[in-house]
């Protein structure tokens, strides 16, 4: 069963704005108005249509809470949709950050399945400007994704897109170790 989940998971190193999947996930903030890091890259490459929809959602719903996600067009990106997920800022003082990070992944996956998304690419949410420890974030991301795709048949491919070497190595190690054990 776990091997089936592993078959649907891929790790690559690169820029998420260039990946051709049904949906790419953005590491957004609660304002939905863009920012630095992967958020800045997605808005730059995807163009104004994405920001326009984010502003509409913000006007309607007041933004996006930490641990939640919203969906917009992919604009000029090769991806059809962008799922904007808000991960927690890591404080290290056990304020429920692990659960909030898991929720950001889970709510992105739910939104993807509701929109018939078959392939989805995730950046390493919260591990940049929000300073979440990379090893711990990867374990949470992998566990949440595996749990979801084992129970849901809509999503056929999940790509973890790692930008930095450290995350790329952590994900490869984590997924390969699991492959050997299970
Ligand atoms: N493709 C894939 N991954 C990327 C890219 C890219 N083009 N650029 C950066 N990363 P961060 P956060 C990686 O800081 O920690 C923004 O200002 C990066 O190496 O983008 O969730 C938002 O508006 C790191 O591993 O997001 C929020 O305010 C990962 O993406 C805040 O940053 C996430 O780093 C969110 O902080």
TrEMBL record:
**Which InterPro entries does the UniProt record give?**
Macro_dom, Macro_dom-like
PROSITE patterns recorded? MACRO
What SMART domains does this protein map onto? A1pp
What SUPFAM superfamilies does the record tag this protein with?
Answer: Macro domain-like (SSF52949)
Q: Identify the PANTHER family for this entry.
A: GANGLIOSIDE INDUCED DIFFERENTIATION ASSOCIATED PROTEIN 2-RELATED, MACRO DOMAIN-CONTAINING PROTEIN
Q: Which CDD domains match?
A: Macro_OAADPr_deacetylase
Residues in Macro domain copies: 1-179
Protein name as it appears in the record? O-acetyl-ADP-ribose deacetylase (Regulator of RNase III)
Species per Swiss-Prot/TrEMBL record: Mucilaginibacter pocheonensis
């Amino acid at each position: 069963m776990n091997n089936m989940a592993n078959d649907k998971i891929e790790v690559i190193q690169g820029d998420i704005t260039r990946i051709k999947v049904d949906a790419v996930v953005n590491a957004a903030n609660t304002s939905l108005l863009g920012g630095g890091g992967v958020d800045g890259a997605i808005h730059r490459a995807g163009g104004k249509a994405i920001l326009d929809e984010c502003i509409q959602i913000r006007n309607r719903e007041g933004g996006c809470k930490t641990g939640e996600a919203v969906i917009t067009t992919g604009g000029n990106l090769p991806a059809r949709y962008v799922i904007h997920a808000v991960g927690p800022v890591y404080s290290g003082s056990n304020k429920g950050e692990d659960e909030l990070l898991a929720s950001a992944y889970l709510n992105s996956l739910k939104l993807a399945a509701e929109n018939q998304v078959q392939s989805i690419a995730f950046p390493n949410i919260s591990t940049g400007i929000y300073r979440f420890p990379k090893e711990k974030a990867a374990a949470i991301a992998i566990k949440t994704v595996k749990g979801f795709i084992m129970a849901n048949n809509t999503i056929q491919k999940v790509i973890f897109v790692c930008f930095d070497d450290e995350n790329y190595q952590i994900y490869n190690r984590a997924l390969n170790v699991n492959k050997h054990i299970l």
